[in-house]
Design brief:
single chain, mainly alpha, 5 helices, about 0% strand
Length: about 140
């Protein structure tokens, strides 16, 4: 009877160890997936936002070579990036993402002060995102 009880206890300990290991592994995979999704959303936001900023603040020659379908594509990518950031990130990061996106849309040709504000908004967003994902 004692041998059977010892066997059952040993089996339960082994099974619980396996469950704990599986949980820890799945938790790590979930964290990596979340980090990857945040980075993908941020890359979309920054890339599209930068293109929109350059369009809005560009020279007349640059504007003439631009295709309207490009703006729609950039706007779609910007919104996809913002959606990912809003769904997955904390309030500080979301606020900085919104500030950067708004600043890109408000750009004007030759407005140096606004360009500096846009760069500051981008830096604040990237700093906040790095802090959030643990990549400082």
């Amino acid at each position: 009877m004692i041998a059977v009880l010892a066997g059952v206890i040993g089996a339960l300990l082994g099974f619980s160890g396996a469950l704990l290991g599986a949980w820890i592994k799945s938790r790590g995979e979930q964290q990596r997936w979340l980090r990857d999704q945040k980075l993908t959303g941020a890359a979309e936001l920054v890339s599209a936002g930068t293109n929109i900023f350059e369009l809005r603040s560009g020279s007349k020659d640059w504007l003439e070579s631009f295709e309207p379908s490009e703006l729609r594509e950039w706007q779609t990518r910007l919104q996809k990036g913002r959606a990912a950031i809003h769904l997955l990130c904390g309030q500080e990061t979301r606020d900085h993402a919104d500030s950067f996106a708004k600043s890109c849309w408000r750009a004007k040709t030759g407005d140096r002060e606004h360009k500096d504000k846009t760069i500051a908004a981008l830096r604040a967003f990237i700093t906040s995102l790095r802090k959030e994902i643990g990549s400082e």
